[in-house]
Amino acid sequence: MKGFKWSALLLSVLVVQGAFADVRLPQVFGSHMVLQRRKPVPVWGWADAGEKVTVLFNNQTKTAKAGKDGKWKVSLDPMEAGGPYQMLVKGKANTITIDDVLSGEVWICSGQSNMEWPLAAANNAKEEIKAANYPQIRQLLVKKDISLAPKDDIEGEWAVCNPETAPRFTAVGYFFARQLQQELNVPIGLINTSWGGTHSETWTSREAMNQDSELGAVAKKLPATYEEVIQSGKERTQALLEKQQGGLPTAGEPARWTDPTFDASQWKSMNQPGDWEWGGLPTLDGVVWFRREVMIPEGSNLNKMTLQAGSIDDRDSTYVNGQLVGSTKGIGPRSYNLPEGLLKPGRNVIAVRVVDNSGAGGLAGPPEQLKLSGERLDLPLAGQWQYRVEQVFPSSFKPGPNTYATQLFNAMINPLIPYAIEGAIWYQGESNAGRAYQYRRAFPIMIQDWRQRWGSDFPFLFVQLASYNAGNGNSQRGSSWAELREAQTMTLQLPNTGMAVTSDIGEPNDIHPRNKQDVGKRLAAEAMRVVYGKTGVSAGPMFDKLAVQGNRAVLTFRNVGSGLMAKDKYGYLKGFEVAGADKTFHYAKAEVQGDSVVVWADSVAAPVAVRYGWADDNSEANLYNKEAFPAVPFRTDTWKGITEEGKFGK
Question: Which parts of the sequence belong to the Sialate O-acetylesterase domain (predicted)?
Fold first, then answer.
């Protein structure tokens, strides 16, 4: 009996002890983290309702009581840069110990793939990584996640910068931090929350989007569960295929699609090369056939012909006049040698079976790489291709970050709030280029949304899109990338913003320029001006005024610095165009005259408008100030653009 009493007493003690839940912290807090200097530092987490929680850090002791929902928060007093320190968080049942904590400058690093791009893939990666021994630079890499509702925690951990960890650092963020650390001599913390290929709308909260008439309509479409997303994806894809091609083909039908005599006149068409998700098959993973007829002139030399297809996402089987000429798996350029006699003068048919397992699909290389070529013949193949879907993979219905708006805000931004930060750097816009006019509103809405939720108009610095031949766009055909850059420039109207121009460091055939060093340095230069009070020039010349004198347009600029210059060994300015009242642009001559640029074209007697760097690939633009910052691309006209009708969700 006595033994029973003692056992019961021991059991009751264990039950009482087990009733206390451990005090917890979100994963934004962890060993090796950097806390923001000179600002109050919120520390928060969860415990039992009513439980007292004590936080000890750098000679400060703060206490809080958990609310009915189990949440608690304290605010550490502002502190100067320093460390390493230890943080203790004590509850009734446990104590959390966080070691090697520094106080310094904390920056959010966000956007799509050019921000996500790791140091391991940047220029001179091997040498950069070997030298990346900066123990006062740290990164919190936020694991990719999506959510239909706001979450309160992330997955991720802080890492100290050294040659072992540096390869996984955001390259832009690393070079930005390295420059700041050298100039400020304080620790720098980077919170890397980025995801390639994403739209700005998925980084924006539902509440912020609801305040805009256009974006609010999109936010209202947000479903309650991902089961609904998958089901609606199936229904949407089925309806699309029924409309486009009467459903999926029968089992034996695709075998006939390589036959040059097959009648494909009822097939739909899309522009290739290009991502088929933008060409008419949104979210589709699966098997798609592309066909094109090629007319070869009589008398053509058809010796040693090759079919070059650039990169294909992900796997292809390529047929010419019914014969398989090659098959390749994985991203990378294709070049298939064609047997002698396979091509003939007159009509020829190319059929490409493309298998895409995830993400973008289609012929993905630059337009100039898609061609038939030989000793004396070069036939470009970029343009309209007929297409038909053979198979749809289940992954087509799996939700992605762009399936609905707000998902990345919910999962990868909201849980970070209200962690104390100095500001944010942002590299994104490529995925919004088709809706550049709407970006004029969507981008500022996102910035203001973040600021409101952090409770501060914190500095927001961003990278203008680099030069890249996305669709061969220019002033004659229109350029979505130029219009997106214009939208980014307009965003500088918001306070505490800065922009790094990168038209000179892009790669015409690669959307991911490897030169992330200069991107980081230019962002750091803007940070030194916007945030840290450094005087001097931190960006390139920006168009101010246009005056017409006869057949010449005289342009004046801001941010001239110590003077304008052409970055050209012959001193010639490039990238300028001029138009008269007919709105037809002509390549123009231009020269620096003091703090102005004079522009003219012999074929334009009365200039009305000037454009500079107005093209997808604007790498030839070479106006700089003498501080070596490139000029901001611009146009003086407000004529209708090609993206005015582009809307999110359409």
Answer: 105-230, 417-527
